[in-house]
Design a protein that fits this description.
There is one protein chain. The protein is of the alpha/beta class. The protein has helices spanning about 15-30, 45-55, 75-80, 100-105, 120-135, 135-165, 165-175; strands at about 5-10, 35-40, 60-70, 85-90, 115. It is built from 7 helices and 5 strands. α1 runs parallel beside α5 (about 120-135) and α6 crosses α7.
Length: about 180
């Protein structure tokens, strides 16, 4: 995006992009400038450190880091910054993401990483927006509108199910 990024989305491999793009979609919907980068905690540690310093000096306020397996990227990012870090455990082929989830959520005392559900980059994006809304009233207003729309959608769906019945609702929804 063209403006200075407020959020940086990091992943250890381009294979994580399928999950991580959901956070980017949230920022695009809310018109929040972000950056997206592939850097490995293990294969490019020096470059990762340089990137964190550079993006912080350019105004990044929150880091979102997705990783699978041992999932070290969010913790390493958190060790390099005092800015909030949100970790996204990425489902691996071994333990369905449980290994990633436990690796991120069990950070040692003093280096916290907020953690969302496995493959839940959308919630990571929304959590970042909640954090940004503390400082930016326009983002807060957009988040309130977003949540109001979610509420309206649930009420509308409930009323439709009551009106036509669940079986008919499912039939219409699947067509």
């Amino acid at each position: 995006m063209k403006s200075k990024a407020l959020v940086s989305i990091l992943m250890g491999s381009d294979s994580d992009l399928e999950v991580m793009k959901e956070a980017a979609k949230v920022f695009e919907e809310f018109e929040i400038p972000y950056s997206l980068c592939v850097l490995s905690a293990h294969r490019t540690p020096e470059r990762l450190s340089e990137y964190i310093k550079e993006t912080e000096s350019n105004g990044v306020q929150i880091f979102i880091a997705g990783a699978g397996g041992a999932a070290h990227l969010p913790g390493v990012v958190a060790s390099l910054t005092i800015k909030p870090v949100i970790g996204i455990p990425i489902k691996s082929s071994f333990l369905d993401g449980l290994d990633s989830l436990l690796s991120i959520v069990q950070m040692p005392k003093g280096i916290p990483v907020a953690t969302v559900g496995v493959n839940n980059a959308k919630n990571a994006g929304l959590l970042a927006i909640s954090i940004l809304s503390l400082k930016y009233p326009d983002i807060s207003d957009k988040l309130k509108e977003y949540r109001a729309k979610m509420k309206e959608d649930v009420i509308r769906t409930s009323e439709e199910i009551i009106k036509i019945g669940y079986a008919e609702y499912l039939r219409r929804k699947n067509n």
